[in-house]
Amino acid sequence: MQEREFWQLVEEVFGRSYGRALAQDQELTGLEDLTAVEALKAGEEPRVVWNVLCDQMDIPDTKRWGRGHNAPPMPMR
User: Fold this and answer.
1) Beta bridge partners of 34
2) Is the CB of residue 59 less than 8 Å from the CB of residue 13?
3) What are the DSSP calls for 13-63, one per residue?
4) Consecutive H or E run containing 5
5) Is residue 10 part of a domain?
6) Residue 75 domain-assigned?
7) How many angstroms separate the Cα of 52 from the Cα of each of 40, 49, 71?
8) What domain of life does the native source organism fall in (predicted)?
9) Any domain includes 18
10) Are 71 and 65 in contact (CB under 8 A)?
């Protein structure tokens, strides 16, 4: 997943305004309390950030990839 795809999903799943605010303000406990924006700037894989954000916001797998999207593979670590 590229960062561009991350932001597309943020808008599709959460809505443009709420999604952007959520990404800037919501501390993600699974990522050392960084926000999504901070985690991306720190070099975390967008797919990891997306999954942590969705897990924290209780977004089920059936809705987290939006319409017509398939879950991209997890990054190699």
Assistant:
1) 28
2) yes
3) HH-HHHHHHHHHH--BGGGTTB-HHHHHHTT--HHHHHHHHHHHTT--HHH
4) helix 3-14
5) yes
6) no
7) 12, 5, 14
8) Bacteria
9) yes
10) yes
- The token pair at 77 is 């670590």
pTM for the model stands at: 0.85
Is residue 19 included in any domain, yes or no? yes
Residue type, 13: V
Number of structural domains in the chain: 1
Tokens of 26: 């919501």
> pLDDT by residue (tens digit) across 31-76?
999 999 999 999 999 999 999 999 999 998 888 887 766 665 555 5
Smallest Cα–Cα separation from 30: which of 6, 51, 8, 13? 51
Tell me how far apart the terminal alpha carbons of the chain are, to the nearest angstrom.
15
pLDDT reported for residue 53: 96
**Domain boundaries, position 30:** 3-64
